[in-house]
Amino acid sequence: MSLSTKQVRLTLLALAAAALVVGCTPGTQAPSPGDDPAVETPAPVDNEPEQEAEPDREPVAEEPEPAEPAEEGEGGVRLVTNPDAIDVLVNKQNALSADYVPPDLVEPNVRFIFDEWHERRLMRAEAAAALEEMFAAAEEDGIYLAGVSGYRSYEYQELLFTSYVSTDGLELAQRYSARPGQSEHQTGLAMDISGSTGECAADDCFAGTPEAEWLAANAHKFGFIIRYPEGKEHITGYMYEPWHVRYLGKDLAQAVYESGLTYEEYLEQNR
Ligand SMILES: [Zn+2]
Question: How far is the CA of 224 from the centre of ligand 1 (A)?
C-alpha cells in the first residue's frame, strides 16, 4: 500500500481508537488515545505505523474457557489451551479467547516512540525484563531502540483489524494484521521495535536499517525471535516484519534461531 494510503489509514484508526480506548480496553488506564506507534500529535490518538501482522481468521470470540486439547472453533481455528505458557503458539490457526488477558503485565523501562500511557507499553514481566536487557545491550553497540507496540487487548486488536480492512480490504489487511484473538500481541510476549526516532516504525522501510540488522543478529541472545521472517508468509501467514519480536525465553529462542526455521516449523519438527 502506498504511504499516503497508510497515513490515511492511520489517521482514521487513531480517531477510532480514541473513542474505543476510552471506554473499554482492559488494562488501559488512562484513556490514552492512541493507538500505535509513532505519531501522535494531531489526532487524538495517534497513528499506527504498525502493521502488525499476525492472525487471520474469523474472530474467535467465544469460549472464554479453554478446554483441554485445543478445541475446534469456527472455521478450524483452534482455541489455545495454554495461553499463559511462555512458548504458546498463537497464529491464524490457534487463537486466544476474547477475554484472555496475560497475568503479569508490566511496563518495561525502555524508550517508546510515543509519550502517553497506553496498554501497548505493556509486556509480561519476564519478557519485559528481557526487553530491558536487550535495549541496554543494543545501546552498548551504539544502537538506540524504541518500543512501538507491545500488549494489545482483544478489543484493541479488533479495532485495528477492522480499520485496516475498511481501508485496504480484507485480502491485503489479513497479510499484515491479525484478526482479534489471533495476534501475538495479545499474549504480552511480543513487541514491535523501531529505532529511537520512530522512523519506519512497523513499516517496510525498517528492513535493512542498523536497528533491524542488530535485532536479527542479537535478539535470540535475549530470548526473542524475529517472528515473521522474510519469504515465510506461506507458513506464518504474515508478510516480513523485521520489527516484530516474540519472547520465547533464551533457550528456546536460541534453538529456533539456530534452526533457521519459523516458529511454526520448529514446533512441527520438535514436538
Ligand atoms: Zn507486531
Answer: 13
Strands (DSSP E) found in 21-144: 71-72, 78-79, 94-95, 105-106, 123-124
Whole-number Å distance between alpha carbons of 211 and 219:
11
**Strand partners of residue 123:** 106
CATH topology of domain 3-54+102-269: Muramoyl-pentapeptide Carboxypeptidase; domain 2 (3.30.1380)
The pTM is what? 0.77
Find out whether 161 and 201 touch, Cβ atoms under 8 Å. no
Please give the positions annotated as active site. 241
| The three grid cell numbers given for residue 2, joined into one nine-digit string | 502506498
Half-sphere exposure of residue 251: CA atoms within 13 angstroms, side-chain side: 2
Report DSSP state, residue 219. Answer: G
What is the C-alpha separation between 61 and 20, in angstroms, rounded? 18
Give the Å distance between the CA of 244 and the centre of ligand 1: 4
- Over the stretch 72-115, which tens digit does the pLDDT of each residue have? 556 789 999 999 999 999 999 999 999 999 999 999 999 999 99
Boundaries of every domain in the chain: 3-54+102-269
Neighbouring-strand partners of residue 193: 147
**Residue 29 Cα to ligand 1 middle (Å):** 22
108-144 confidence digits (pLDDT tens): 999 999 999 999 999 999 999 999 999 999 999 999 9
Which residues lie closer than 8 Å to 4 by C-beta, 6 or more apart? none
178 CA to centre of ligand 1 in angstroms: 9
Which residue type is seen at 101? Answer: V
